[in-house]
Amino acid sequence: ASLLEDDEAVRDRQVGLVDRAGRAASYTGEGCMPWAGGITGDGFACQGNILTGPEVVQAMARTFEEAPGELVDRLLDAISAGEAAGGDRRGKQSAALLVVRDGGGYGGRSDRYIDLRVDDHEEPVRELLRVFSVYDREYLVREDPLVTASAEAVEDLQVRLRSLGRYEGQVSGELDEATRTALASFAGEYNLEAKIRDDDQLHESLIRELRDVTPEIDGDAGAGRRSG
Fold first, then answer.
1. Second-level CATH architecture of 1-90
2. pTM of full prediction above 0.85
3. Of 26, 73, 201, 212, which residue is 20 to 30 A from 53 by alpha carbon distance?
């Protein structure tokens, strides 16, 4: 209430809040265009205005509560459910998704874990899902465990880096300076420079990206087996 009591436009406001304990609140001013309203639950506040009816936020809330996956997956499912239930009574135009996480942005330089938007499209939610699928596949690192740089793992890296013309040394299984330099060069080109380390650990995302761009090399390359 204290956030709104000094607001001269309070009757036209719509606000949703969730605190760090998951407690939620939703406010819809009496001046909001119908249908307008909201639903709260454990860890979420769902509200909208100029909707086709209450079934929109009901579908979104129910889907968010039941959907599997992490926050981004549940939000996308909820957005899709809201549109399927009727969405905005004026039609379709835009959709957006913003998820913040401490140090979740590129290279840990910001908290913008996901920041995607579709401003003008005939099927904005469908387009948002498509854009996110590309982002999820090509850029987003949801979990990135560390892998010990064993001799076998390093041999695999060396064979793949050599196939790309980045490494000219022997396939020794040693994470030496030449191998580190080649790996850093590769990481820089694919926007993964933040994944370079100076110890004997490797980020799984970096290994996965290198394997993705050298599909002609079988599995753990070792001695440099090629498919076909």
1. 4-Layer Sandwich (3.60)
2. no
3. 73
- Tokens representing residue 32 in the block: 């909001």
State pLDDT tens for residues 164-196: 999 999 999 999 999 999 999 999 998 888 889
**Both structure tokens of 95:** 């959709």
33: nearest Cα among 88, 73, 113: 88
**What is the H or E stretch that residue 24 is in?**
strand 24-28
Q: What pLDDT was estimated at residue 227? A: 41
- Start-end of H helices in the chain: 55-66, 71-84, 124-138, 151-163, 177-189, 204-212
Distance CA 87, CA 52 (A): 6
In whole angstroms, give the CA distance from residue 227 to residue 8.
69
Residue type, 154: V
Strand partners, 28: 14
d(CA 192, CA 79): 31
- Boundaries of every domain in the chain: 1-90, 92-142, 146-212
Say if residues 53 and 35 touch (Cβ distance below 8 Å).
Answer: yes
Q: Which residues contact 189 (CB under 8 A, 6 or more apart)?
A: none
- Tell me if 36 sits within 8 A of 27, measured CB to CB: no
| Radius of gyration (C-alpha) of the chain in whole angstroms | 24
Of the candidates 77, 205, 87, the one whose C-alpha atom is nearest the C-alpha of residue 132 is: 77
d(CA 53, CA 90): 12
